[in-house]
Amino acid sequence: MTSSLNPRFTFETFVVGSANRLAVTAGRTVAENPGSAYNPLFIYSGSGLGKTHVLMAIGHAAKALAPQLNIEYLTLDEYVEAFHAAIAAGQGDAFRRRFQNVGVLLVDDVQFLTNRKEMQAELLRLTEALQQAGHQIVLASDRPPAEIADLDERLISRFSGGLVVDMGVPDYETRVAILRRKAEERGTAFQPGVLEAIAKIDYPNVRELMGALNRVIAFQSVNEMPVNEEAVRKVLGTSSAASPAAASSTVASPDEFSQFLTDVTATVGKAVEAWRARVAEAVMRWQGEGYRTGRLEALLERDTPAAVDEAIAAYVQDVERLKALEAEVAALDPQAAGDKVFHDPERMDEAEATAGRMREGVAPPPAPSAAFPLESYQAGPSNEVALNAARDAISKPGKKYNPLVIVGKSGLGKTHLLNAIGLQLAKKKGAIVACLSTQDFVDELIAAIDGNRVDWWRARYRRCTALLLDDIQLLAGKERTQEELFNLFNQFLDAERQLVFTAPAHPNTLEGLEERIVSRLGGGLVAELGEPDREVRRSVLERLLTHQHVGTDTALLDYLADRPVDSARSLTGLVQRVVEAAAAEDSPVTAGLARDVLEGAAAARRTAGGAPRTSGIVVSSAGGVRSREKMVWDWPAAGERVIEDMR
Amino acid sequence: MSLVNFTSREITCKIVYYGPGRSGKTTNLHYIYQRVPDTRRGRMVSLATQTDRTLFFDFLPIDLGQISGFTTRFQLYTVPGQVYYNATRRLVLQGADGVVFVGDSQARQLDENIESLQNLQSNLLEHGVDVRTMPLVIQYNKQDLPRELILTTAELDDALNFRGVPSFAADALHGTGVFETLKGISELVLKKLATGSPTT
Q1: Do domains A21-167 and A374-528 have the same CATH topology?
Q2: ipTM over 0.85
């Protein structure tokens, strides 16, 4: 039902003169950028002046530039017929869909819309749909939209909203050019002056001009004599006097302005060619996103397009790289991400360098110490609960107990267990485990505040998949750190990332901690480490003695394991003393020697021997514990019991 | 003033008609004004003395509509030709994209033409513009006067057009050469737009 495009009707075969240059320029523009330049494009002219030619030429040109484009040419009558047929077949919707998918719709003879209300409504709907979808619509008519009788106001404003151009009667020179081309096409040669004589006759349109040419060609072919100017006048029935176009006065043709406009249009068209538009679009887009576009703007200053698309692609690639760098840096230090270098593709090197510095600067936060593997943690009834909780935290980090607070007195292995959890968590893929003492945590924050890098400090911890803090009671009175920890706390809980803390006593009993921290600490699981039971003591001793390369005879182990100690760490002190005493006396470590050393008999000998005396003083790390005493809790002998005050 | 603005898709050309007093600059603008359809032109602003001499300047905005998707406007200005209005001339010249030098073809006006051309050069320099980089065309007006009173275009070219810019013979009163001149300067300005858009 749609007419196909006449292959002869292309822009190449169209003779452009001042009367139709605007229409042709607009048509070419539309063919190059369908849907974006002038939409709709409305061309009107008297009959026989080339509307249909231009319409089809647009179709050809658009097809040549974008072969996949769906192009439809049809006259309004054909459109109406198709519509009626579709309605009759109950296919109205399919009909609409079909036309809404057309990339370039060329509708000829739109003036026949007069008195067709339903078609006007249909065309209005179609125009709107096509415009919205960014598809091109080109209309041709023998009069401007406002003069089509009985045309819906909305259609008039639609049509006039794009570009309305007219095509006038070709001037004398154009007529000669048309005649020359047509004569050439027909393979007919004329004497000089013949075509000019035909062109001088003022025909109202090109079709009649063609008729005149045909008559002259016919006349020449029957007469076998080349026709001359005089013969032309005779054939065409004009006297030599009647040559109105001959007096082409240079002064004050009323068309001067439109001629000027046409010329300017051509010049501007050259200046703002398609490639410039593409560059300009890219400039606008990236400027809108805040990037410097100096490199692209430089392209616009060139005369000729030199690899414009490649240059744009390279620019886009650089911008993508900058975006990636910026995102990376933002994760490390939000403050640094705002840096201008990340918005200037010309400073790519600087951006890379900044990101590199950032990467080095953000060493991962302190990791758990490898000296405390989970395997060497001795299990027993006294620490069973805590150990199970630790295993749960390792297997389901952040899901089961969050936070996990390990509570116990000094020397019971809290730090060991904390680091052991950290080591296990760090084995997971992509894990970043921060494991450090609360004191270090506070010191780092102070340094960050001092260096004005708090954002950096925060970002460093926010990246972590787990945060493990030893001796949380040291937060007492550190308001700023509590504030920061509170925020981190919430983020970690929200993201289901594991938090583990150690404390000397239940969080409720710690002084100097804010209520919001305390309640959060208590919100997960508080697991208590009991005083080591005999089983734990024995296995700890076994490990210690093996470590000292001392034979583990059962009597020694049993004797040492039965000593009344309240922590695993004090066992270390015991073993140390026994081993040193044995070394001083150059005798093997036995249960007897141990008894001598630990129960006083060896005291005198040890002093006499001048062996370095282990102080046996252990400084509790319990900064938040109510008693601030340093206690000597491993009494070497009853007579030596001393309490040293802290100075 | 930006000549071509890709963001707002606008092209604005400021063209200044320059020349000695009574050479016909305002007449040029009047002729153009009459030929531009009502819808395309703004109000022509003309500040003249009682004897119709330009006092301040004439201003004629022309809207060429959408061209290649760009809203295109021409702003035509004239300067007062009389010597003592130099401050105004300099002001009007600011931000010009192109200059039409309207010369008086009368033989006895030759010195005034040369003086005005020198004045144009120095005023452009005050704005930091080299006359060689400024799009410029010369119009030899009043070519309709009796032969014995005027110089031919060839003679005028020899005297004034030492840079070899496009020159046009004209009779502004009757319109001959007016649009040719405007077209000539437009092409130069737009060509410059194509090769590199000035940023200020």
Answers
A1: yes
A2: no
